[in-house]
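agent: user wants the structure for RDD family protein from Streptomyces ossamyceticus. delegating to structure tool.
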Amino acid sequence: MSSEPPPFGSGRSPDDDPFRKQPPPDQDSGTPHGTPPGEPPYGSRPPPYGNEPPPYGGGGPYGGDPYGGDPYGGGSFPNDPLLGMPPLADSGKRVLARLMDMILVGIVVGLLAWAFRISQYTVDTDDIEFSRSVGQEVLAAVLYIAYDTFFTVRNGQTLGKRVMKLRVANLSDGNTPSTQTALLRAAVLWIPFAFCCACVWTAIAGGWSFFDKPYKQGLHDKAAKTVVVSTE
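agent: tool returned. relaying tokens verbatim.
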């Protein structure tokens, strides 16, 4: 049983998380995912395709164990943390979800900056009030981090991820991240975005998932030890 405290505001323990990692199928149970009754133990049977390689690079629907494997599309090896997890999210869908989140929070940042007169900069004769710029950067960082942390702790889904049917999960157990994990993940993503290199950092941190193997993690996922998976 997980010793991790229940996520802030979720009202449930990690063991009650409906998306948590499912236990791998028992190879000796005689169930459809294990060794059928009367069959020799797994590993002593001949391959189902003789000497021919299995189609599409694997025997199961996700290229896993042809005798059952992981029904959730995770890895094929006993120690693979993806065993029992839903399939990893498509990186293109992650980008679309992130753009939706950036637009939603950006609108709120702009409205609040206008309401409190925290413009990006103002010109008074020959002086540029750089303090206004810093004020808007702080506001943006706080709102982006708060938004990302709140929804990630709630159910692993920001509004953009909900639309794209994705969610954030702990790599270790598939549970919804704790407040500490979600806050670390959000801070790594949004602090550089707000204060120094918005476009460049977003492209690097988020785009990392296109090339990362085997878990398709962004840099913020690596820092928090999370993955993004599909909910379809």
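agent: one observation worth passing along. Residues 69 and 76 are 7 Å apart (CA to CA).
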